[in-house]
Amino acid sequence: MAAKTMSAVQYEKYGGGAAGLKHVEVPVPSPKKDEMLIKVEAASINPVDWKIQMGKLRPFMPRKFPFTPVIDVAGEVLELGPGVSTFKVGEKILGLLDFTNGGGLAEYAVAPKTIIAKRPPNMSPAEAAGLPAAGLTALQSLKSAGVKFDGTSKSSNILITAASGGVGHFAVQLAKQAGLHVTTTCGARNIELVKNLGADEALDYKTPEGAALKSPSGVKYDYVVHCAPAVPWSVFEPILSDHGKVVDVSPNMTNIFTSLIKKVTFAKKKLVPLFLVPKEGELEFLVNLAEEGKLKTLIDSKHPLSKAEDAWAKSIEGHATGKIIVEM
User: What positions does the domain Enoyl reductase (ER) occupy (predicted)?
Assistant: First the structure.
């Protein structure tokens, strides 16, 4: 049985960064229909978490204050709500909490049954918590570009920017699984790391070649998965093949407008803004790869819940290598 109250981390208003996080004692939530109560073992911070705090999704998110952020979790099922039959009490799981309700920075959380998967024994809680949002974003970005994972993908060239980051390091591994030639950008200190993940070429993003995103071997890219801060379309256009496609995992309004122009003018080269919408079976696909040793979660750092503000600040600073984890 869960306790009646739990430790959690919340913020009470927009802004404030890490200093705006408060450690509180709140009631343990109860699962409703199609939900389950989980004992959280680890949670992972994503940039969208602190962007919501900054007010980037105002007035839609958060729904109300105070708000307990984070949706990436791994833990153990403690209680099943009505309508949940695919999981059992005591099972180890990983997945996404409801985006609008959050709740991951707490000892207990309520999770919808739809975006939860059983955790294989060879995945630690930290590795599992780091997978859902970033792994699904990487998978959907590749699918949006046209990459197939059924063995029918043509031999193609792909560029993955910020390849040592949360989304990027999963995208590199998945692109190699699909049989692509992978070029990456990252910081100089991570070049060997991304090559070990499967990159065929790696560019230091601070060099002139890296800033121009030009392949060392001179190839044009059929696909680009852009995980770095926004760059103008004029940088992408000359490095793409005739029907090249750029998928932007964190699009701004300028890039969204550019994508619409490309669409209505039937341009051969396309820009696609990606908005994560988890689909049935995709998380299980990633978990199966992880269980088989074909997909691994890079852990940048681990922080106890009592120091969640340190993890928050580190994510805001940027340049994390892999995922930032909070352990309960």
Answer: 16-326
| Residue at 250: amino acid letter | S
The model's pTM is 0.95
Widest distance between CA atoms in the chain: 61
Q: Do domains 5-131+297-327 and 135-273 have the same CATH topology?
A: no
d(CA 135, CA 128): 10
Please give the CATH number for the structural domain made up of 5-131+297-327: 3.90.180.10
**Residue 64 CB coordination number (10 Å):** 6
Going from the C-alpha of 285 to that of each of 45, 95, 113, 114, 237, the distances in angstroms are 22, 13, 16, 14, 33
CATH superfamily of the domain spanning 135-273: NAD(P)-binding Rossmann-like Domain (3.40.50.720)
Residue recorded with tokens 């998967």:
117
Cα–Cα distance, 21 to 221 (Å, whole number): 42
pLDDT per position as a tens digit, 81-95: 999 999 999 999 999
Domain boundaries, the chain: 5-131+297-327, 135-273
Give yes or no for a contact between 178 and 142, defined as CB atoms under 8 angstroms apart. Answer: yes
Q: Which of 79, 19, 70 is nearest to 49 (CA)?
A: 70
Q: Angle, nearest 10°, between helix axes 166-177 and 282-291?
A: 80
Structure tokens at 171: 């995208």
- Three-class SS of residue 100? coil
Strand pairing report for 299-304 and 22-27: unpaired
Confidence class for position 259, pLDDT limits 50, 70, 90: confident
How many CB atoms are closer than 10 A to CB 115?
A: 21
Q: Which residue has the tokens 């994560």?
A: 276
Q: How far apart are CA 317 and CA 320, in angstroms?
A: 8
